[in-house]
Write the structure tokens for this entry.
Amino acid sequence: MFLLRLPQALCVLSACVCLVLAYGEDDIEVNYADTYYNEITEGDTPEPTPSTAPCSSSNLNKWDKIFSMLENSQMRENMLLQYADDIIKVEMGSLRQEMLRFVAQYGSSCGIAVETAGRRTALQLEGRLRETLERLKIRDQTTAAGGNSVGNSNHLEAIMQQLLSTAQTLASRLAKLETSCFSSPGAGTGMNSKTRSQLPEVGAAGTSEQEVTSREVALDGVLAALQQTRVELEEVQRSSRQRQLPAGCEMALLFPMRSRRIYTSVISNVPLSLTAFTACMWVKPTTVSNKTVLLSYGNRRNPYEIQLLLSQTSAFFTIGGEAHLVEARGVVNPAGSSEWIHLCGAWSSEQGLASLWAGGKKVATTPGVAEGHVLPDGGSFQLGQERNGCCAQNSESGVPGFEGGFDPKLAFAGKMTGVNMWDRVLSMEEISQLALSEGQGCEQRGNIVAWGVTEMVPHGGAQFIH
């Protein structure tokens, strides 16, 4: 047991000896000088001591230098990254402004140019593909007639069909792109950069979509309101046209009721010895009987030289008597019309051709009407009645200017304007212009009877209205 512990004891003893020898080699000087108090006298000034940087050491090993270099490089990297970030933000902002300004100035034209070029390319591609496909079909027919194999041609034909379908799809997509691009709000409108800068940023996509949707809903509401307003304005214009006079006329004759006393005499200073004429007028009847006289001219020998009549839904025009009659059916409403009707009667003695016009259109023509006849002069011309000599003169009426011979069943009730008469047959273009309700037909006055110029004397309750 003792022998086993002996080597361990020797090792411990040798270690102690080494320690003593090591401490003995160092020179340890202990200075027990007198202690001094930190006192500064009046004549003493402290000597300046050299300043050294804190935590600085003149003796740096390679690891300290490596760590210092790493710290400096990390700091410089952070500074460079911050500077690059600032530069990118500024440059991207300026680039965005420039792009918005470019789009505002040239967006519409560039979009149209791109769309035109794309469509032209698609059409050219489609045309060439069709041409190639036709050539392949002709080649297939030739090879089939010669007994050769057509498997390769069929494969090429399938490929060309696919290319053709692709070209058509491309064309349809370009059309959709054009529609969506130019129908979007602000597309091609030339908004400036200030207006566009006020729009939401790209990051706020949800807000932009909501604003666009709300704007579309508001525009739809405005469009519906405008359409409703348009309908109401059309109704107002229609009702105002019914109350107003047609063809630019400024006055009209009012026949308030059927009466033998209510009519209007036309006193023309031009002789009515005529071989051709055209008589036109605007009428708005209140009611229409079996025979309603609009215009009548005659003398004692023949009271029915000229007559323009209404009967239920038809219009009649006679020359020299009822034997020479022109009839047009479906011209008027028997219960009265809420709109003005333009009627014309034309006749020529040379050919005996009589025509009746309604609304600027020829509705009836009859040949051989009073061919070679000459209208006699010196007759009486009246509106709203005819002088037929059926009734004895009523001397007890006491109405100034009243003359007997009128039948109340033939009287016209309603309004009449634009009464004119020419000594020739007017052309179709002239009558069409006279029949324009929105035109100025009243300014085209006849040379036999001129509305607003020739003297017309209302009798009974007939009167001029404006």
